[in-house]
Amino acid sequence: MITRPQARDALRRIGGQPDSEIDLAEGAMALAALEQPRVDLTAYRRHLTTLADEVAVALRQRPDGLDARVDALISVLIGRHDYHGDAETYDDLSNANLLQVIDRRRGLPVALGILYLTTARAQGWTIVGLNFPGHFLVRLEYRSERIILDPFNQGQVRTVVDLRELLKATAGAAAELEPTHYAAVGNRDVLLRLQNNLKLRHLRADRVDKAAEVLDSMLLFAPNEPSLWRESGLLQAHLGNFSAAIGALETFMALAAGDQSLHQTAMLVQQLKNRLN
CA 172 to CA 181: how far, in whole Å? Predict the structure, then answer.
């Protein structure tokens, strides 16, 4: 059983860890537990172990190699457990909650991607999330070979042509592939991307208070990200929480030496202080 304070403590511990030591699944489950206080994580951890064990068994049935590893992942995550993208109710908040994704067997690209990353890494495989805009993808590597998989679309292998079409669908017809779109992202960035989905949905629904709560959770595991402090300060100011806004904006200024918005932010802090006096 994990309580909300325990989940926050777990996220704070992640905030102090090197990126390579972050356990993605544990981080995502802690974030989910903030929305489901006093949830028992035992069955979810057992399920993750089952996925890893079943992939190991599937791979033993054929010679190792990149194609064999892809087939093992797909046969377990898709064939046996029916994980798939939720295209029908894409904006449902539960699609970004790993516990509910496991319960429902459907979710957003990044939530499903965490399952791919966790399951593959349990085998000792090299797999990373990619900095592809608007649609989370993973890249599995074996020796000198690489392959890009789409967790949202049943683990489909994505070619350069596919990626170009995906990019134009999300970023506009004028968008073109760039090297940064293939760049690997760290574990902390994956968790940030997961939470960013929730934040944006709350903002679209004009729930600034809920968006501010999501930002608070992001700052627990990414306390050195200046942009998050600035955004948190702006949302807290919008909500009328001037003391919290001042604290967040001052933290931003301390972390963001040389940022172009420092002067503007300093003026805003002074205005907020004047309103408190």
Answer: 15
